[in-house]
Amino acid sequence: MTPVSAKLYTDDVSLLMVLIDTNPFFWNSVKSSLPISKFLTHVLAFLNAIVLLNQLNQVVVIATGYNSCDYIFDSSTSEGQTQRAEYLLQKLEEFVNKDESLCREDSVDGPGFSLLSGSLSMALCYIQRVFRSGPLHPHPRILCLHGSPDGPGQYVAIMNSIFSAQRSMVPIDSCVIGAQHSAFLQQASYITGGVYLKPQMLDGLFQYLSTVFATDLHSRGFLQLPKPAGVDFRASCFCHKNTIDMGYICSVCLSIFCKHQKKCSTCGSVFGQAPVQDSSTPDRKRKNPMDA
Amino acid sequence: MADKQVIKRAKYKSSVKDPGVAGVLKMNIERFVFMPNDPKSTTKLNVEFRMIKGHKFTKEGSSKQALLNLTQDQGGNYILEFDSFADPNAIAFHAEAGRVVPDKSAPPVNNEQLSREETERRIKLLQENSELQALHKQFVYGGILTEAEFWATRKKLLDQNDSRRPKQRLALKNEMWTVKPLSDGQTNRVTFNLTPEIIHQIFAEKPAVRQAYLNFVPNKMTEKEFWTKYSRAEYLHSTKNIVAAAAEAAEDEELAVFLKRDDMLANEARRKIRRVDPTVDMEADEGDDYIHLPDHGLLQNEAKDVLDSQYEPYRRSFSQDLNQHAAVVLQGRLIDVELGDTRTVAEALIRTKKAELSDEISNRNLERKLSDRISRIAEKQIEDLQGSPDPAQSHPSDPRDYFDSQQPNALKALGDAGSGTKPLRSSVSSREAYGSLRDIVSDIRVMGLSEPIVNQEVALKVLNGLTQNISSTKLHLGNNPHESVLDRLPKVTKEELLHHWTSVQELLKHFWSSYPITTKYLYTKVTRLKDAMSQVYPKLQEIKESVQSDFRHQVSLLVHPMLQALRCCLLHTTMQMYRRDLLRRRKTNGSV
Q1: What Pfam families has UniProt attached to this entry (chain B) (predicted)?
Q2: Which of A38, A212, A229 minimises the CB distance to B466?
Q3: What is the per-residue pLDDT across A150-185, written as a single tens digit (0 to 9) for each?
Q4: What string of DSSP letters covers B339-369?
Q5: CATH class held by domain A6-221
Q6: Mutate to test the interface with A, among B401, B421, B429, B440 (most CBs of A within 10 A)
Q7: CB of A269 within 8 A of CB of A280?
Q8: Which residues of B touch A179 (CB under 8 A)?
Q9: CA nearest B90: which of B107, B65, B72?
Q10: What's the ipTM?
Q11: In this predicted model, what pLDDT tens digit does every residue of B134-154 receive, in sequence order?
């Protein structure tokens, strides 16, 4: 990291962690409406805009692949100082190659799921490193540019990342570029105090990014940013990936099941054979969708 | 409160002519009791007000005695005679109040002298406005406000209901003054009748005559001469003999003033035309006209005459006269002077005209606005001719672009329709998918980014959409934007809230209007108000707690400002009292 004098760090200096969805199956499915070339054009312009907003602003880009995640750009490194776009694209190409080599499946039905939990964790790790770098650091935030549908298998990991972000006061902004709303990201933004947005016109993605997501955390206090009409708080059951209102919860790891299980599939806890009314069995608990 | 009574000296009469039994009349809100001075007399009365059906009394100021006739339900009536005229009013008010609110305590009217009209007006207002009645009931009968205090803040309401409004000003007659010459048929004399009313109308309609009058009278000619001349000119007009009129005008220059077309009028007309919105297409409107005749179908004899240009100024069309008359009538009576003196009328009219003109000068920027508008409209028209800017429609040669631009909408619709299902189901081999992704990325590396990044129209649309979205989610909490929070509350709660709102407003109004406390009276009033407020306070809290949990937050949001305002008042009074206490203590200390 570049050493900077203490005075220069004002409250509008940001560290922006951008998570780019690079799930090839997703991009293949939206080839006609939003080719990745267009998406990258908008995002690169946005990243440049962020760097221009304040010379101390820092941008880190993490590619969220199908099988892996990786940092593909860091504006604080020496390579990130010049020829940013070229550097980023080169790293992205390398990443795609690496991700492909890790792929064990021959074909995938539908757009598939990208590894959001992984990239969120990487972003949080980076932020933790920045926090520990000294008393003066830019204000970090995470921006998820996500298109792939929610991977129910990552529910626990994603929720853990969300709570960890909430704990370290890092807002998670989400910009959903896919066809569907993302319940995970809705909750992530709601819990961490970020902005959740699903642009209606993807042609104007840059406009959305620059109007909504370019503002630093300090300025957000003075702005009226879009708020979702409602947040889908329903959880998906871990056994069938159904969205449920009511279900069984593991008393150890809080995993959610739509049916009574003998053993928790997440943490492996064995539930007692006692009758359902017994307090030692997982409670049948009502999850109120609007209660938070 | 119920033992609050009004005691009056009165005479009870069985009929109007009866000398009556002198005694004392005691009234409280429920009944009135008449006790004769002579304890042996049998004419004792003890009547409940609710039995009283109506009341009549002699008019104030008349030479007769002050009589009050209370009509009973069963048909009987009580006639009471009073010493002063104020008394029966007070009783009438009692009687009415007893009927309106039969089970409430008496309004403290004893120190008030209400005229009968005033009382009636108040009663009428209370009967018409249930909300007001509720407030009146709460505060006046509750002893928080006196009758006078309650109505003092509603002077406007009382004035509106005032039947004796200032006399409506008479407008000018909607009838054109046409000179109807009265000829006796034998001699050649023609008589004109001019009343001050008619003169006023002439002055208003014909500024030239007005000007001429001010110029000529009384220096050049007498008033009578002037009007004779004018009448002569009118007579000449009525004969429609333009040539004769021109000839006469040539001989007499004063007469010419009347006969020539009114220059001032013409100027004014020009001025008005300038202010007409030029986008009003007169030509086009003509097509819609009921008859396509010149001068709107009015018979026009002189138009047929072929006239030399020298007679032109003497022509006067009927439609001109009609328009001028209409304008004057619509303007109404502008001056407020007695019509007797002709000169003052003329001068007053001139004055109003001048004021109007100066108004117009200040309205110059209005004209500028108008011209702006014209140019804007002109631009718009040109724009219209330029055609639609939609590239998708204007370039059908590239259908692929059009399809691409429509795709996001289709996707959106799909996403909204079935949020649980995955709309895109196609099996893709991983090699293909990775391959295309890699190709595109390397393509960008070689080719560079496409420009421009965002189409400006799209950017504007996005911005508008975002702004709209933000403002709508900010304003409307619920799903239905037309639904207000109050409508969703239970009816009882809603009414209670509204009632408290009005009553709190009333209390606050009276409270703050009595500051600074300069008199003992204001001090007691504030104390009374403070007590009332401290009673409302727990009630509001109660409402908040009584509603269901779903609404509690919203109700508390509604109640909060009321509580805050009340708290502020209470705090203020305690502070004041504390300060006063401190001052007093200091004073006594100082004196000791």
Answers
A1: BSD
A2: A212
A3: 887 788 788 889 999 999 999 999 999 988 888 889
A4: SS-HHHHHHHHHHHHHHHHHHHHHTHHHHHH
A5: alpha beta
A6: B440
A7: no
A8: 411-412, 414-415, 423-424
A9: B107
A10: 0.73
A11: 888 777 777 777 777 777 777
